Amino acid sequence: MQVGSPSPAGPPLPYRPPPRSANPWPVVAAVLVGAWTVAVTVATQTGGWVTDQVLLGFGRDRAGWLWPVLGLATVVLVGTPALLLAVLPRSAPVRATGRVWLAAVLALGVLTLLRIVPLVHHEAYLAALAAVAALATLAATWWSRRHTVVSGDAAAPADATASPADAVDGPEPAGRRSRRPGTVPLLAVAAGLALLLPWAWLGALGGLLETVLALLAAAAIGGLAATLLDATFWSRFAVGRPPRPARLVLVGGLVAGAALLLLAAGTGQSGAQLPALLTLPPAGFTLAALWAATWRSTADPAGAARAGRTATGWLVGLGVLGPLAFTDPEEISLLLVGTRDVPFWVAAASGAGLAVAVAVAIGYAVWLARRSARTPSRRMAAITALVLLVTFGVVDAGPGQPGLYGERLLVVLREQADLTGLPAGVPGRAGRDARATEVYRRLVDTAERSQSDLRRDLGRLGLDPVSYYLVNAVEVDGGPVARAWLARRPEVDRVLVSQRLRPLPAPAGQTRGTAPAPTGPEWNIRQLGADRVWSQLGVTGTGIVVGSSDSGVDGAHPALRAGFRGGDDSWYDPWNGTRSPTDKGGHGTHTVGSAVGRDGIGVAPDAQWVGCVNLDRNLGSPGHYLDCLQFMLAPFPAGGDPFTDGRPDRAPQVLTNSWGCPPIEGCDQRVLRPATAALDAAGIFVVAAAGNTGPWCGSIEDPPAQYPDVLTVGAVDAQRRVAEFSSRGPVAGGVGKPDVLAPGVGVVSAMPGGGYGVLDGTSMASPQVAGVVALMWSANPALVGDLARTRRILRDTATPAVPTYRSRNQADACGGPANVTGAGQVDALAAVRAAQG
Questions:
Q1: Active-site option among 122, 587, 590, 624
Q2: Is 46 helix (H, G, I), strand (E, B) or coil?
Q3: What is the separation, in whole angstroms, between the first and last Cα of the chain?
Q4: Which residue of 128, 386, 467, 702 has the fewest CB atoms within a 10 Å radius of its CB?
Q5: 430 and 530 share a domain?
Q6: What residue stretches are annotated with the Peptidase S8/S53 domain (predicted)?
Q7: 740 has which bridge partners?
Q8: Is pLDDT of 299 > 70?
Q9: Where residue 369 falls among pLDDT bands split at 50, 70, 90?
Q10: What pLDDT score was predicted for residue 10?
Q11: pLDDT single digits (tens) 810-821
Q12: Residue 173 has pLDDT above 60, yes or no
């Protein structure tokens, strides 16, 4: 055979039967290496995603070294036996198997490095994926031309020529290349569109730039696959006179499927690559059938090679496009597994995609790979591809979720309102209302003045600006280009990503409780002493309003219905626009019940409540967290303008916040700091959950829990031991956190649908402390708005709690017990008595 670069044309080489060998061990070794490759790849990819999710569940940052280490481990574990297969056996098919697996695992190792890009910057990841895959394709092409032993047409199997009767479209005239797509590429497009159908039905696209970059990345991955699985590779499995399609499909398809598994493992951020591990490997058999049909339907080996490469690129590119474009890797999360949310629908799309991929592979293999089968005409192939394209559009526009759902940007301005020098005013409710009104005026004036030029420019660009005043900021549409432009403006301090959830094909089910209805004060109410406040002091929270920002509230729940303040300014849902209190997730209903619920579940049962939805499907965004905090400072009627229709005199006195905004949702450490400072200046008492990321020290780190003007609450159990999950200090700036503790293990409270449920978390502890504040201010209305004195009473009257640590190591003591227990567990009876005094 001739050594050199492929020539554009030439007669096929005479058939040389492969040397026969009685030694079966190379084949056995290849089978074992293939099984090992699949096992290692699936284990490392699944294990890496699960590790990411466990860290996320504990509130920890992703380990930046994790995916590079897993990629290197896969390269070593898979690449070593693949290299041995590539150089040791005398069998040409076995050596070709080793070479393609080695090249694929090297590509996996390089592509895996890209997962160091944070999930929140998905556009940057897709751009890097497209660029790196394109460079890998160029490198693989150069290496193939330099080192592969081929002749001008040696990539075609012997006797792979076809007579004019067998070639439906006839061979291309010499010296002229048809610009029309060939039969086999059109069939590959049809197969790829079939793989996309489940994603068009069950998934949703991101933003415009995100979608374009996903298309480019998919095209680059398709090009890389076409380079690795080229004519030279397939010719090693097409032997016999004439070539035996069954061997090509079965053996070549298995080898190609393992190579595609490796490519799929490197395609997509953590979580987004998992569906492709199921749906892409069966395409190896489809490709084998397409290559068999290519060689049978043309007398031009060079043309056959071009058609085969094109078909491979289209099929693999469309196969990986679904997970890349129709899912958000941030939403493929164990945090959402408990409901029919994105992980459920991704799993459903993956299962449907696997079924489609297997059906297509079997159908193409039976139809195209038979020796006697007649390859479809170009017209029939074109009609098939067109029908599937139309079907894709109909599915997306019908049962699918049409449209673009990209993330938004939160533009934080340099200038924030000056809230110094506020008048002291009279003590009590009237003084608090006056301060809140003045704070609202200053915040709105600052935002309107400083945002005017920016909003005008954003409006001209059609970026849909939404202004905020509690933090002087603007939320807009846009990707990395808009972000870079905004970051360079002189009035802008920084630009953050504000998440937007992609829609679901069907609403997530409502979470309901299974616990029996309480028959008296629950254990946590008794441990706090709230029941003795009711019975001994006659204080139940009357006259105080508690505001909740959470997943919502079931306003029809019997323990909560009577406590809703009502009016046109007591409920706001920036996520879904509901006009009356409702809750599907259950978290918000449970927390409000612990604060003001009746029937023995709430600390202040006669206090009223107002609500706002800042979590949708257990995820939030900086913009919607601000929406709710603004509503709590100055409630406004449904459909009203927060800037002009706010009513600070209707603000709740106490806020309970059982949420945090981690970096994966777009927040940084400072983003909500002006908001809590403004609420503090307005005399509104803010209570926040410490978080459930213990027992690690320094785990109180997501806004707003670490801010000094927020009362941060940890959790204890029935033995007054700090719950192991309860987050601990110290926090940046030397502020002591948590401030106090409350029961948070096995807490019974209201759930949507009128039932009750048992939940654990500092989310359960913080509303109880908000209820204690409501009791204190109800007992002494002159204390309303006196935040410093209220905090001091809560700390001074707290009772000791038992600290817990991660181990006996003194390094796990978090700098002292106060960073674990704070001032201790809140004592409602002592606190209310002190407030009265």
A1: 587
A2: helix
A3: 101
A4: 386
A5: no
A6: 541-802
A7: 713
A8: no
A9: low
A10: 39
A11: 567 888 899 999
A12: no
| Banded pLDDT at 350 (limits 50, 70, 90) | very high
- Contact between 317 and 192 (Cβ < 8 Å): yes
372 in any annotated domain: yes
442-482: per-residue pLDDT in tens?
Answer: 999 999 999 999 999 999 999 999 999 999 999 999 888 89
| Listed residue (710, 681, 745) closest to 822, CA to CA | 710
* Structural domain harbouring 288: 122-168+179-397
In-domain check, residue 403: no
Nearest alpha-carbon partner for 775 in 800, 748, 793, 752: 793
- Report whether 502 contacts 206 (CB < 8 A): yes
Q: Is 587 in the active site?
A: yes
Query: Within a 10 A sphere around the Cβ of 196, how many other Cβ atoms?
Result: 24
Alpha-carbon distances, residue 139 vs 78, 135, 142 (angstroms): 21, 6, 5
| C-beta of residue 496 within 8 angstroms of C-beta of residue 622 | yes
Other C-beta atoms closer than 10 Å to the C-beta of 464 total 12
For the question of residue 763 being annotated catalytic, the response is yes
Last residue of a domain, one of 482, 498, 514: 498
182/231: higher pLDDT: 231
Kindly state whether residues 488 and 426 are assigned to the same domain: yes
> What pLDDT score does 17 carry?
47
- Whether 327 and 435 map to the same domain: the answer is no
- Residues 719-756: pLDDT tens digits? 999 999 999 999 987 788 999 999 999 999 999 999 99
Q: What share of the chain is helix, strand, coil (3-state, %, to 5)?
A: 50, 10, 40
DSSP letter string over 83-112? HHHHHS-S-HHHHHHHHHHHHHHHHHHHHH
The active-site residue, picked from 300, 396, 550, 786, is: 550
pLDDT at 643: 97
597 and 483 belong to one structural domain: no
Three-state DSSP class for residue 672: coil
User: Token pair for residue 702?
Assistant: 């997501």
**Helix, coil or strand: residue 205:** strand
**Nearest of 679, 700, 727, 714 to residue 547 by alpha carbon:** 679
426 shares its domain with 356? no
Given the residues 91, 333, 699, 763, select the one marked as catalytic.
763
DSSP conformational letter for 685: E
Assigned domain for 134 exists = yes
Task: Name the packing angle between helices 66-87 and 25-57 (round to 10°).
Answer: 180
For the cut 60, the answer to whether the pLDDT of residue 3 exceeds it is no
Mention every residue, 6+ apart, whose C-beta is less than 8 A from residue 382.
181, 186
Structure-token pair, residue 94? 């076995």
pLDDT tens digit sequence for 81-117: 999 999 988 888 999 999 999 999 999 999 999 999 9
Residues 6 or more apart from 479 whose CB is under 8 A from it? Answer: 123, 207, 208, 209, 210, 406
Q: Which of 804, 780, 794 is nearest to 824 (CA)?
A: 794
Sign of torsion, CA 335 337 339 345?
positive
Q: Comparing C-alpha atoms, which of 402, 355, 345 is closest to residue 200?
A: 402
Q: Residue 655's closest CA among 380, 436, 381, 353?
A: 436
Residue at which a domain ends, from 356, 371, 397: 397
* Distances, alpha carbon 744 to alpha carbons 365, 375, 449, 600, 658, in Å: 59, 68, 45, 16, 12
What CA–CA distance (Å, rounded) separates 223 from 210?
A: 20
Q: What is the mean pLDDT of the chain?
A: 89
What's the pLDDT at 6? 40
Pairing of strands 608-613, 571-572: parallel
Residues 533 and 677 grouped into a single domain: yes
Instruction: Return the closest-CA partner of residue 278 out of 41, 504, 32.
Output: 41
Joined together, the tokens standing for residue 251 give 């053996």
* Per-residue pLDDT band at 340 (split at 50, 70, 90): confident
Is residue 508 one of the residues assigned to a domain?
no
Distance CA(405)–CA(499), nearest Å, equals 10
Active site residue 477: no
Structure tokens at 594: 């612990």
CB 645 within 8 A of CB 444: no
